[in-house]
């Protein structure tokens, strides 16, 4: 190649392209390496917990660090123990209902309010918005006792509404949706109005579809904070018939609980299964959501 | 004029479910909490007005000083580090496409899905002295065992690591949603101008996702100032035992909860909460002022 | 009382908003009965349920709901419940939480009801514990219920491997240390980190101290810890350090090490026995229990603590008291102790042959004779949490060599008195 007569410009461009290809490939390898390492760090602890459950009992963690599962039957046995010795199934039901109702409520109420705050001017808007935003900065722990006392006064102790309703006014959800809904073009809303849509119809048919991604994100975040919520169910639903999964796991995690590590981890693992399932389902939806908004935008 | 009035009514109607719940289950508890902070309050016994005594008592206590100092160090590390990790992960995921983008996004997000009590249980095992997973790995390299959760020099950093592990995926998803909205032709234009990948990130990506970053940073700050769950679960996780050795993991919300439920001093706890609220309001105000100064995007 | 009025008003407003009916049928009575989680699991739950069934049979229309709670959740729920009048009607807790519960208004003074009980019933209980429940004249907050005394569990496999004669009793701390030397030489751990937790601290401190040298005087707001004895304890912690696992006695990891023949000595309450028993069956763990060794020959160490059953100051408190008296009565406590091998405060039940033959219970009984109470005095004042962490932090610092024992002792006493004075 060197013997052929080539213009200097072509030569330099060719060598540049080789260099860049080489640097790209190194960057690509590095990129994969980092991605895989981070993925291991992120997933390993959960994988490890799974292995603790599905391992031969008696072999201590200090000797066998549980890097892979060794016994299916031991794991199934652990799971059976949990289901027979505790009311885990009922706790699942309570937690699922608590979570679902909370998600529905938060998505509906926050998006309605966020739509107004993000897109319109009306008297008192800044005042109302200011108050809601300040509440975002109040630590939850400050309000927990007064909220609890109020819930008791309503006669909602040990009820689903007692669990759900006080958590529905989510300033966080509102804040997040406002940030997203601000990007809806005002012309789209004006166009819908000119087409004769009323206020609620604009919200339902224009704002909601356009905010699908944000709503899904909010739904999953709400799912997690509700599923993992510990202190509120603890005080507002003290009866065993209303125990959430978190409370049942709490019984096993207590220092004086009479159980070995494999049983404790089984209780924990079972609490992690629904969020994992929810998350896997949600994966497809977010992809669809992105595609959907992509075609609209 | 009248059409504007009816339109206003529509706005308020849409706002009303949220605002009603908000007033009953958020504003009212906050106001009553403020009220308690001026009383010596033992729940059932007659309470009496004590003026600012609760505030001065909290303010002059040794634990308050320790908790505030811990908080300061914690926030100044965990917020920048957390955002940096989340942004890096988002860019990393964004650089993949198709299946692998989805795969890594899911993998990085998994820790967020786990209930916190579960994450803490696992991490306590990973951090265990002598035979814990991390110490085993250190042992391979001939390093001495570290008491991650019982050595006052490492406790805070060990906790920040868990904190970042738990929350990086959360921020990553939000930043990713922002990245998807950056028009692709911006990058093409930058590339035509000869910008390197790093330059593209600095000059195209970051400015384009400024609102999202603002949200992530502000929310990260607010929640870091209220940190409770992770240090609580990594230390004694009981009202009789929390904060860890030499209170190295004592934070204001934890100290406040301890005064309320552990020592039955709800007046002090309320006062504590309000002092913390004022701090958070100030920090957030600074954030918003900064955003105004550097222009809204 | 102005708060209650405030809540009433808000409830009225909220009630109007949500229109919640509150009508209830009057003849049916339901009592909420809260216990520790281990009382509401397995064997223990079956027995508790049969107590409840028997009591309900005598009181038509009565329903008693038993609810198990983790240690901390039990206290949190009771305090929150007392604040709103919605807590349990009858419940148990540790006597060390007694003062907090009194302060929260969760406990009714049951002195009149107690005195109305026949002498034959009142004579069944441990006198010291009755005195504990009666902090002031004519003020009684509880009926003593169950209890524990700490024991030292020994992993026999580890000790045999190390060449320790497990038949010979451990005479004193020096003897104990020499056994741990051998254990360490065999590549195993001697003890968990005893400085990390107030209970494990007390298990060592009780090896030198007397009952009058533990706890606090809430009148003068002074700690009762003896600085010289504390210094001796701290010095011993330094000696224990090389044999320590570095884990808290309550960590799951500590139990896992013991079960897996990595740890020789494990000092804790009798409640850790069920998982050890299970491990003995599943993996062939060989273990036994002995008294916690004291510093010198003849000095016994150990910690004892008690649970009480109390009644909330609510509408059905009479019935709730009757139920409390029923479950603590000799017949029930005898069945309880015989079936579970768990210690309790009903002395007559412990003397029953079906009970006294249980080895774990016998050992607990033996330990409780001389052990120090966990967090005395009870029902008189609340210890700020920092009181206990100050002790463990100080002990850890000495064990790490950051402070000299005698300096640490005087510093600790000063710090504890400061904490008590602060309230």
UniProtKB/TrEMBL annotation, chain A:
Q: Which residues cross the membrane?
A: 32-54, 96-115, 127-151, 163-181, 202-224, 263-282
Q: In this protein, which residues make up the domain named ABC transmembrane type-1? A: 92-282
One GO BP annotation of this record: transmembrane transport
User: How does the UniProt record describe the way this protein sits in the membrane?
Assistant: Multi-pass membrane protein
Keywords, sorted A to Z = Cell membrane, Membrane, Transmembrane, Transmembrane helix, Transport
Subcellular location per UniProt equals: Cell membrane
GO cellular component terms, alphabetically, are:
plasma membrane
Superkingdom of the organism of origin: Bacteria
Give the PROSITE patterns listed for this entry: ABC_TM1 (PS50928)
Q: Which InterPro entries match?
A: MetI-like (IPR000515), MetI-like_sf (IPR035906)
- Gene3D superfamilies of this UniProt entry? MetI-like
Keyword Transmembrane helix recorded: yes
Q: Which family does it belong to?
A: Belongs to the binding-protein-dependent transport system permease family.
Among PANTHER family, the record links this protein to: ABC TRANSPORTER PERMEASE PROTEIN MG189-RELATED, ABC TRANSPORTER PERMEASE PROTEIN MG189-RELATED-RELATED
Listed name of the protein:
Sugar ABC transporter permease
Q: What lineage does UniProt assign to this protein's organism? A: Bacteria, Pseudomonadati, Pseudomonadota, Alphaproteobacteria, Hyphomicrobiales
TrEMBL record, chain B:
PANTHER family, sorted: ABC TRANSPORTER PERMEASE PROTEIN, INNER MEMBRANE ABC TRANSPORTER PERMEASE PROTEIN YCJO
- Domain ABC transmembrane type-1 as annotated: residue spans: 68-287
Q: Which UniProt keywords apply?
A: Cell membrane, Membrane, Transmembrane, Transmembrane helix, Transport
Species of origin: Xaviernesmea oryzae
Record GO cellular component, one term: plasma membrane
Which chain regions cross the lipid bilayer? 12-39, 71-92, 104-126, 155-179, 212-234, 269-290
Q: What is the lineage of its organism?
A: Bacteria, Pseudomonadati, Pseudomonadota, Alphaproteobacteria, Hyphomicrobiales
GO BP field = transmembrane transport
Keyword Aminoacyl-tRNA synthetase in record: no
Localization per Swiss-Prot or TrEMBL: Cell membrane
UniProt family annotation = Belongs to the binding-protein-dependent transport system permease family.
Pfam families found in the cross-reference section: BPD_transp_1
Protein's name in the database: Sugar ABC transporter permease
The record's PROSITE patterns line, in alphabetical order, gives: ABC_TM1 (PS50928)
* Mode of membrane association: Multi-pass membrane protein
TrEMBL record, chain C:
What cellular component GO annotations does this protein have?
A: ATP-binding cassette (ABC) transporter complex, substrate-binding subunit-containing
Matching entries from InterPro entries are given as: SBP
Which GO MF terms are attached to this record?
maltose binding
| Keyword entries, A-Z | Periplasm, Signal, Transport
Q: Where is the signal peptide?
A: 1-25
Provide a GO biological process annotation. Answer: maltose transport
Keyword field contains Signal = yes
UniProt xrefs under Gene3D superfamilies: Periplasmic binding protein-like II (3.40.190.10)
Which superkingdom?
Bacteria
Q: Which SUPFAM superfamilies match?
A: Periplasmic binding protein-like II (SSF53850)
The similarity comment for this entry is: Belongs to the bacterial solute-binding protein 1 family.
Q: What is this protein called?
A: Sugar ABC transporter substrate-binding protein
